[in-house]
Amino acid sequence: MQEGVHAFENGGGGGAPPGSSLHGVSSDDRCEARYDVPHLASFHDRSDHDEAGSALSAEGEVEVVGAIKWFDATRGFGFLVGDDGEGDVLVHFSVLRPFGRRSLPEGARARCMAVQRERGLQARVLVSFDLSTATGPDLETAARRAANHVDPMPLLDDASPPESVRVKWFNRLKGYGFLVRDGDNADIFVHMETVRRAGLADLVPEQHLRARIAAGSKGPLAVELLSAED
User: Fold this and answer.
1) Which of 12, 174, 145, 133 is nearest to 77 (CA)?
2) Which of 11, 81, 121, 186 is 20 to 30 Å from 96 at the Cα level?
């Protein structure tokens, strides 16, 4: 196994802490895995399940399904708590590499194939994970969004006059959403920063607004929002 995992098993490398999406993304949340950090990811499918939902392979692996208890991205490991009383399962960042990740947020659901080690179960293969249940911040998603965020302010001079739009979809926690013009289904990306500059805390589906729209590198981009009455 990886060096960091061996260090953990031998008592080094730390223990549990005390007490313990983007312009051009489709408004269909299921598409997030294609453009941003995977929302619902699966490495491969397994069908060797018994009626209780767990499986034991010929190699001594046991399938564990549960929620991420915590994950220390700096140390490179965390723990999954199994739904069926398996206890804490060590998850090393190396099993996340096939998904292009180094950590998982607290509360994310995951399925793994685990093996018994000296100090307990350890994930050998991550089968799948779902970020929609996360209760903690996803640092990797935040970093990717920050790297890909387009500042709308330089586009103001080339933006259209205010025109009528309505909210198609918006997620305040994700920090972005989409608008559409009346009679036009083309998605217009809107970032949370633009919403805040308009003095709004959130947007709701079918809410009517007026927006100044510019051509961004990945499609139409709302650079200023106004109330429908302005």
Assistant:
1) 12
2) 11
Tokens of 184: 């036009």
Pairing of strands 120-130, 77-82: unpaired
Amino acid code (one letter) for 52? A
Measured CA to CA, the distance from residue 199 to residue 193 in angstroms comes to 10
**Rounded (5°) CA angle 108-70-50:** 55
Distance in angstroms (rounded) separating the CA atoms of residues 25 and 174: 12
Q: Please give the sequence-ordered ranges of beta strands (E in DSSP) within 73-172, or none if there are none.
A: 77-82, 88-92, 109-117, 120-130, 163-171
Tokens read off for 118: 């000296």
Q: What pTM, to 2 d.p., does this model score? A: 0.46
For residue 179, the SS3 value is strand
Under 8 Å between Cβ of 104 and 78: yes
For residues 105 and 71, the answer to whether their CB atoms sit within 8 Å is: yes
Q: Which residues does residue 7 pair with via DSSP β-bridges, in sequence order?
A: none
What is the DSSP secondary structure assignment for residue 159, as one 8-state letter? P
Is pLDDT above 90 for 175? Answer: no
Q: What's the count of helices (H) and strands (E) in the chain, helices before strands?
A: 4, 11
The residue type of 73 is: A
Nearest-CA neighbor of 134 among 17, 203, 26, 40?
Answer: 40
d(CA 99, CA 207): 36
